[in-house]
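Data deposition worksheet. Section B asks for the primary sequence of the deposited chain exactly as it was used as input, without tags or linkers unless they were present during the calculation. Section C holds the resulting structure in token form. Section D is free text for depositor observations; keep each observation to a single sentence. Incomplete worksheets are returned to the depositor.
Section A, Depositor: J.P.
Section B:
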Amino acid sequence: MTHQEWIITVDDEHVQGIDEVVDALEAVGFRASGVLRSLGQVTGETTSTQQDDESLRQALAAVAGVASVDAARRYRVAPSDSD
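Section C:
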């Protein structure tokens, strides 16, 4: 099982009802960890097998009010004194 973190952007028409969008996302297996109301974004994760990530992304994108679904990425910079 893998955990995939997502950043969901809500379209302008649904920002006022972002809580309903979150409920609908959670109904398809999304676990919200943050609701950024002023940005119209929701952060959270899903748990799946590697093969299911694309089908989960499509299920999240199909929720009414969702403008985009992007996988969260983490980048780290080595300390300045490292090779």
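Section D:
The longest strand covers residues 2-10.
The chain has one domain: 2-71.
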